[in-house]
Structures are given as structure tokens and as C-alpha cells.
Amino acid sequence: GAGVSQSPSNKVTEKGKDVELRCDPISGHTALYWYRQSLGQGLEFLIYFQGNSAPDKSGLPSDRFSAERTGGSVSTLTIQRTQQEDSAVYLCASRLTGGGNTIYFGEGSWLTVV
Amino acid sequence: DAKTTQPPSMDCAEGRAANLPCNHSTISGNEYVYWYRQIHSQGPQYIIHGLKNNETNEMASLIITEDRKSSTLILPHATLRDTAVYYCIVPFFRDDKIIFGKGTRLHILP
Q: In angstroms, rounded to a whole number, what is the distance separating the alpha carbons of residues A27 and B33?
């Protein structure tokens, strides 16, 4: 597609439920990033993928969070047993590998845990 | 990766040029300076980037000092729609852990 696409755009879930957030990067972009932003806060780096591989998972907040990427394209961020503090906007970005290549962001998935 | 320092907030009168500074004194020779802005927790929007030369596009101009230790983003004629948080980053693409700081909250005053 023309840009980074994320779904759902909004999700309200009950505490304790699992949620899956999807990111469809720009076609051909090899690097993919996930960030989280709580209300009024900055961008918190979660994880990145180079192809299907995630070299550094240390940014994931807890073991309830996991992410995968298949086929070097679509990525899914899964949050198990959601808690109220997981409420935030989850932003995905992608770019071509290479020193001067720009990162492009999607519009985010707003998650509200009630 | 190179750290950046930005003022937490700035004001600018509508119609005037907004000049947003950024310090990146630990930048290395092959690292680019990127600017993004974010409006109301929408996805950050790419504005401009540069390596050593000044750059201009339809949105803004980027002035990089000769020693590359600082840069200034210039919005030539600020409008109310330019109210946003502006981020200056120097991503170290080799490790790809691209960290955003707190940015500068720009208020455009009518």
C-alpha cells in the first residue's frame, strides 16, 4: 500500500483479555518498528524487526507482550491478559534498510483496557 | 546512538518563522539528522532530514552547523496547524533501536 497501515484503529477490551494489533508496512520495507505512547507521554520503543528477525526484544514491557513478523511483511503485536496500564496508542513504523532512509509511521492503534 | 537535546517548549506568533533548535554534539560522520512532528498523538509525520548540507522542502528548511553538532528546523510561515511536538532524532541505523526523546512542544500564537 501507499503507507503504513495499522488495524484496528481503535480497540476497547476488558481487563484480562488478549488483543492482537496488526501492522502492514510499506511494500518492500525491510525494517519494522513498534512503539507505545501513553496519553501525554513520549514514544516508548518496544521492538524492531529486520526482515522476520527481532534482534532485541528488551524493550517489550513484560512477558505478556510478544511480536512476530512473517514473510518479511505483516507484523502482529500481541498483548496477553491485558491490564489497564496497557491502555495507549501503539504505533508501527517501517523503512528501507540503509543509512539515509526515512522511517514512516502508521496512524496507530488506540487500545483502551476497561 | 547520538543523543539529542531540545527545549521542552517554544512559542511562535502565527505568520512568523519558527526556529526550532536541536543539539546533537555526539553525532558521528555518517549519521543523519531527522525531524518529525506529532499532532495529538497521531502517528509522527516525517518533515525533513539531512547529513551535512542544508536542506529545504515544501514543509521546512533544515540548517546544520558546519561541525554538525547542532541543527535548526525552520518553519518559514507558521500557522496554527503547525502546533505540534517536534522531534529531532539521530538514528543509529546499524542497531536500529531508534529512540525518540521528548521533543519540543511548539505553540503557535494567533
A: 24
With a CB cutoff of 8 Å and minimum separation 6, the contacts of A25 are: A4, A32, A73, A74, A75, A92, A94
- pLDDT tens digits, residue range B50-95? 999 899 999 999 999 999 999 999 999 999 999 999 999 988 666 6
Nearest to B4 by CA among B42, B43, B35, B46: B35
Q: What is the mean pLDDT of chain B?
A: 91
Which of A57, A74, A70 minimizes the C-alpha distance to A23? A74
Nearest residue in chain A measured CA to CA from B45: A105
What dihedral angle (degrees, nearest 10) is formed by the CA atoms of A98, A29, B27, B4?
180
Q: Among A103, A107, A110, A111, which would you mutate to test the B interface (most chain B Cβ atoms within 10 Å of its Cβ)? A: A103
Segment of A1-5, A103-107, B88-92, B98-102 carrying the highest mean pLDDT: A103-107
Residue B66 CB neighbour total at 10 angstroms: 6
